[in-house]
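SAMPLE LOG
Freezer: B-3
Tube label: C17
Construct: single chain, 211 aa
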Amino acid sequence: MNYEQLRAELVATKNEIERRLEQDTESANLSESMQVELSELSLYDNHPADVGSELFLRGMAVGDRVRDEAHLEDIEQALRAMDAGTYGQCRKCGRAISMERLAAMPTAMYCVECQRAEETQKKHHHRPVEEHMLYPGFGEIWHDREDQNAYDGEDAWQDVERHNERPTYDHWYEQVDLDDNQGIVDDMDVITNEQYQDQLPPSPTYRPREF
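STRUCTURE (predicted):
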């Protein structure tokens, strides 16, 4: 396969995608609102389950369109590179992209090594924003068996583990100065069931009535 064949394949795929984007999909008509498509005066009075199938098909059509638009952008980018004479050269390292890779993916702009590095970096950049607030993360504040006196994740876990527990056992190695009522929420909780039974008055003996 040569560059002319690759160009013909890219142009044919481009025309197919443009034709597909111009017409309505079989699953949903995205050129109209969902209300018009379903011939409803309003969707506010409908339970979401009543239009669940239609909503699913509409979402699938949106996903197909987004995929086609992204593919079309990659094809146009490859065609511009052909016109500029830079097609087949890695944009990052400048080395030639193998013909086998171009035959499998005509829109490739990077060699295999640079593409792998690019995808790894992209995954790193698309992490949840919450991770910036939780930095350095829970795994970074666990200093077990280290010369570290600061309050860390291990101490937090031990506090949670001791919650509402009565440290009456020897394995509570850090609680030697606490009494048995540590962790009790209410004064009533210190009363055992046996103590409660012992303080009850004796029940009267049942005697059947005599007639």
